[in-house]
Amino acid sequence: MSAEVIDGKAFADGLLRALEDDVRAFKKEHDLVPGLAVVVVGHDPASQIYVGSKARRTVEIGMRSYEHRLEEATSEADLLALIRRLNSAPEVHGILVQLPLPPHIDDAAVLDAIAPEKDVDGFHVINAGRLATGQSALVPCTPSGCLQLLKSIHGDLAGMRALVLGRSNIVGKPMAQLLLAESCTVTIAHSRTRDLPGECRRADILVAAVGRPRMVKGDWIKPGATVIDVGINRLPAVDGGKGKIVGDVDFEEALAVAGHITPVPGGVGPMTIACLLQNTLKAARVQIG
Ligand code: GUN
């Protein structure tokens, strides 16, 4: 048996085309262009690339992009002052502060300073609480993208056993909340879980988000299960080149066992930006009332 490989890039491209139509209709109806402000502090090369591609896609689907690239030495007070300005700027409907922030800045203080209705990352404690209590919320983009892929494969997820490997605030916890809201039976596993392979083998849906290259082996997977690989890990470089990017799942081994699997790259990654732009349009709709 060989798993069906889920084409996240094609799925995300379809979402972006639909979103472009929705943005056009929104502009016509409200005479207003949705705007997304992206803030990056410092010179982390990966962050610079992510922010550049977020801004490009924003413009491509007809929204306005406001980029704020700040020096590594920017103080927390100055960053908070910028966020306050963006919170009250009427042309800005979504605000994203790219992580990681430099070590002298308190992530939680910054994320919780963003107005919850403009928090398109869904990281604010108010949005996390709304998601946990089943209220309408801006939902973190990566888990939202994973859920859309899962629903495109299975339709109704009710009653399925789902295992989320990883307990981060950005992916693991919101992913578990979303699956619970779909009436899955959810297990959250992590570095201290006993018999991790055995726990994984019980899952109809396995979402891996631990940041450990190729950790999930073929014999950890239930035959026919759907495997969603959130990991983006760069292997050490060989021959002076750049190291290969791999997921948290051993793709070659998993391919022989799983029913469906996302590749890395080209699986979950492209979905994240599409979901960010979905959230920006949703935020603009909420803000105009
Ligand atoms: N850094 C890595 N992933 C993300 C994300 O989804 N949002 C933000 N703000 N920063 C990130």
In short:
With 289 residues, the protein is an alpha/beta fold.
Summarize the amount of helix as a percent range.
40-55%
Largest sheet: 6 strands, parallel
**Overall number of domains:** 2
Q: What would the average pLDDT be, to the nearest integer?
A: 97
Strand order of the largest sheet: 1-11-8-7-5-6
Walkthrough of the structure:
This protein is of the alpha/beta class and 289 residues long. It has ten helices and eleven strands. It folds into two domains: 86 residues, Leucine Dehydrogenase, chain A, domain 1 (Rossmann fold, 3-Layer(aba) Sandwich), CATH 3.40.50; 130 residues, NAD(P)-binding Rossmann-like Domain (Rossmann fold). The strands form three sheets. Strands 1-11-8-7-5-6 form a six-stranded parallel sheet. A three-stranded parallel sheet has the order 3-2-4, sandwiched between helices. Helix 2 crosses helix 10 and helix 6 packs parallel to helix 7. It is globular, with a radius of gyration of 19 Å. The model has no long low-confidence stretch (mean pLDDT 97). Bound molecules: guanine. The site of guanine has 7 residues, from strand 4 and helix 6. InterPro entries: Aminoacid_DH-like_N_sf (IPR046346), NAD(P)-bd_dom_sf (IPR036291), THF_DH/CycHdrlase (IPR000672), THF_DH/CycHdrlase_cat_dom (IPR020630), THF_DH/CycHdrlase_CS (IPR020867), THF_DH/CycHdrlase_NAD-bd_dom (IPR020631).
Secondary structure elements and their pairing?
Elements: E1 4-5, H1 8-30, E2 35-41, H2 45-60, E3 64-70, H3 76-87, E4 94-97, H4 107-111, H5 125-132, H6 141-154, E5 161-165, H7 172-181, E6 185-189, H8 196-201, E7 205-208, E8 226-229, E9 233-234, E10 245-246, H9 251-255, E11 260-261, H10 268-288
Parallel strand pairs: 1-11, 2-3, 2-4, 5-6, 5-7, 7-8, 8-11
Antiparallel strand pairs: 9-10
The structure holds guanine.
